[in-house]
Write a structure and sequence with these properties.
356 residues; Arc Repressor Mutant, subunit A; 2 domains; three-stranded antiparallel β-sheet
Length: 356
Amino acid sequence: MDHRLDNRLAGVSPPAWPGILARISEIDEFKGWWRGRHSPPPSYLGGLRKKSVALSAAASLGVGWTGLPRPVGDTASGLPPALSERLRRASAARYAHLVNAVFDGPGKIPLSRETILGFHAELMRYAPGDPALRGAWRSLHDRSEYLPRHTAESIALRPAAPESIPSAMDALLRWTTTRLDSGGAHPLLVTACFLLEFLAIRPFASGNGRTSRLLTQLLLLRGGYGYLPYASLDKVIAERKVEYYLALRKSQSSLHLPRPDMGPWFLAFLEALRLQARELRQALAPLPAESRLSGKQEGALALFGRHREITNRLVSAELGIPRETAKQVLNRLVALHLVSRAGAGRAVRYRKAEPA
């Protein structure tokens, strides 16, 4: 298994390398910029993360294997539309909960069989069907409709047989951990290989895509891409789902050849990460460096940890500064787009600005 996965890691056609290297360079440049820059105000970062998780949860409802969203109220499961929608919303909430857990402590979550099964059990908690399938490897042969019948390609894309899933997953986890720990291959390419192989095995009867994206974010955070919580990777994938899955399918169709072509998949995966980094850079562009915020301005922003709205009078009292100084502080934060103003005259109040 290790040799086979190493062969896939190296399986890139020469024409694809310039694009792959350009994408890795831009992503890693942003990673270094993120580490070296002054941190944005915690209140603003908190808003970015909250927005990112919400977007990821919403996107998780519309990213399927074929890349096509299921319509709201889909009755393919035989459930009434209202119940189907409630279950979908509950599923999105579970996904948001798990995304937050990954963001909170990636170093405390091991890449293990137990972690993967636990993620799946939580994701499928409200899914209709047999509860025994939640957090359990697939026990039947996959009959997914995305596979064309009676073609050579369908054989190449056929998921792992149920009896081989435990050993295949253990081997994949061992290979991924070894390659990431050794530093012998770029972590972005190791993560891409892990994701491709996971989706080729299709270890669960359903929920493979969402589980794979949780694991992808876990691996990227452990690889040092600490900006990940502040822009939604799931949203980027959902917006490019057709080309994303076509590239995945193209590379998977050559997995069992002597020289598999990983180029299409590497390019698609890295492009999603590059677009995510660009979205975050754009969201941070209007902000000043933290060193350009005065202590009074930082103190005023910190008040949003206890108050939904603040006023000139509140800032003056809490910070122990004159009312005129408090007004200047708030005007500066408005100019920096860190807070928004509502009302006029004595009724004016301020709220924390939502990230654009």
